[in-house]
User: What shape does this take?
Amino acid sequence: MISPHAQPIEHSLQWLGRWLSQAGYRFTAVTPLTHQRVLARTHDPRSSDLRDAFGWNRPFPQHLLPTDLTASLLESHWLKPSPKSMLQSNVRFSSLDGLLFAHSPFPTVQEDAVFFGPDTYRFAAFIRNQLNAQPLKEAARIVDMGCGAGPGGLVAARTVRTEPTTCEVVLADINPRALLHAQANAANANCASARCIQSDLFANVSGAFDLIVSNPPYLLDDASRTYRHGGGRFGEALSERIVKESLDRLAPNGRLLLYTGSTIVNGRDAFQEAVTVHATERGFTVHYEEIDPDVFGEELERHAYADADRIAAVGMVVQRPGA
Assistant: This one.
């Protein structure tokens, strides 16, 4: 059900997500280059369906949605008028793990854009694989640090097979627009225990956690957009900070599941070396793996990556010893 505490802009977003789910809508988010290539094809907006409207983000005819929902979405600026009496959405929805996730429209050029794409699917698979191998306890405390649209925390909570979930789920992000999307996504996932907190990492988040999940930005972005820019020499700074700050926030036997990218230079993964030494020196166990050896290859054309061999998508598990 739609949260009774939702503000009008949140209410409209929840309403749209729930309506799309009931209509059987499904869409798989793709890379920006693939999305751009699909949009370059000839398309008559009069023939647009729900996937065109809320997946590919094409203009669509007004009759595609119920009149009252359309009015609410226009009033809250989730829809905007488009030429030839069409409409266009200011939000997209993508499918993952049986849920729908609201995220930013295409192209994601805004400084506060809310990311969702192929990295999200790899992140979710990494979480599922780790939690299937070592399940969470039923009353686990979970935080999705830098949550964006909230997929990490919500996917993790769904691995605990209780209805309703008995986990406490914190969705934390420095970006208020991300939290707006995450709140609607949590409500539509029926995750009543989820709380959204605006925070620069753990600054406004209290307590220890059984599980910390994170998929931070890991590229260098000339515009320093929050969802994309990781800082440091190759985009690794935020990921390093998450590892270091998480160590003091893990409960006994608690785990950090970090999905990020690492720039490989002359065959060397300097990020892996740095964070592994830091964690193991404090008595934590570390598992580190390459999930995809070559992502965002187009970034290597930029001067900032002139010395890089490749950018690898990696998964890191850091676990605190038991009490």
User: Anything to note?
Assistant: The two ends are 40 Å apart (CA to CA). The CA atoms of residues 20 and 59 lie 17 Å apart.
